[in-house]
Amino acid sequence: MEQEGLFGAAPAATTTGGSLAGADESYAGQPLAVRMRPRALDEVVGQDHLLGPGTPLRRLVEEDHPMALVLWGPPGTGKTTLAYVVSRATQRTFVELSAVTAGVKDVREVMERARRELVRTGTGTVLFVDEVHRFSKTQQDALLPGVENRWVSLVAATTENPFFALISPLLSRSLLLTLEPLGQEGIEEVFDRALTDERGLGGTVKIDDDAREHLVRLSGGDARRALTYLEAAAGAATGSDDATITLQVAEQAVDRAAVRYDRDGDQHYDVASALIKSIRGSDADAGLHYLARMAEAGEDPRFLARRLVILASEDIGLADPSALQTAVAAAQAVQLIGWPEAQITLAHAVIALALAPKSNSVVKAIGAASSDVRAGLAGAVPPHLRDAHYSGSKKIGHGTSYSYAHDDPRGVVEQQYAPDSVADKQYYEPGTRGAERDYAERYTRLRTIIRGE
Length: 453
Known about the structure:
Blueprint (H helix, E strand, L loop, with lengths): L31 H4 L12 H4 L4 H7 L5 E5 L6 H12 L2 E6 L5 H18 L3 E6 L6 H5 L2 H5 L3 E7 L3 H4 L2 H5 L2 E4 L5 H13 L9 E2 L1 H11 L3 H15 L6 E2 L1 H8 L11 H15 L3 H13 L4 H16 L5 H16 L4 H14 L5 H14 L61 H15 L3
Parallel strand pairs: 1-4, 1-5, 2-3, 3-4, 6-7
């Protein structure tokens, strides 16, 4: 199972004794991404929202407090790296478990060893659990005694939403930290270090600007991937006279043609804009062209998926309510199956969204409602709609005259729901295309009953 970190893959072996003091002593045979892994918090690129002065993580590390951390983020953002840095900075024993292979027995053995070590020598243990979302409820329960009794400082990494993937007792005892993909500047900083640092390439190769831009773009915010590409390109360049990574060398090294975007990013945004406008304009073929163009240029598929999800509500909306389901399913599939197979799923979504009937009534409706709120039209909630579940609520008139819609055979009653300040407003203007024709009729009928018109 591939373990990941901000600058590379973690060793497969579990370190069961001592800190990481000697882990960096020899780089022979190690991938560039491993050699360039940060050794201290200040060497970590990106994640400033987690590592800046006074942040909870920095305080925990600098003050050497026991901790329980859940690190949530996509691959290559630094989850494994932060676990190593925490262990190194606090001089604790580092133990690594993979949720793919470890069972309840393994977890309990680690906890018992950590407890004995703490009692015998006073040395704490950092337990790093990669892919913790793969642990069953029973396996996650086995982590709780060590966390509660502070036998270990738990660092659990996951690419899945922890609110769904982790049990509540474990999540409630942990500090949840969300890691973000590195931006272009972050990836470029990673490149600069790797090119010049003695742990990396030590200035033995040069790189042309267009080749650098190509590799940065292909990385998709994943530092490990960026260094893997750079190492492959550097290896290909060492056979040339001047050891320079050219665009051709970079393309051959990562087997991906460069569909050029200009350095300032205008082409990137132009092509993304053209993709959305082609789908909005119902031209499936143009949409597929721009999708392929961005995919071949190494665009992050998650970026493409997010754009399609936004478009589904913004430009199709209630004209075809299934469009949003299609776009969300495509985005989930991108996360599930990855590239290059996800390109087929995105093409599926592009065609479906391009052929769907179009309506922008939803975006206009929320825009109009937000405009009134910003203008100060946010009156008090009508008394009959206020919470009436606490003692004494009825004495102040809360909920006393509320009409329960299910008591009416029609399932709807005449009643004021909006504050007085916007009681007569109509934000939603139904369109006339696709399924929204039916919504228009239903909206008019319900509004007539509710407002007694």
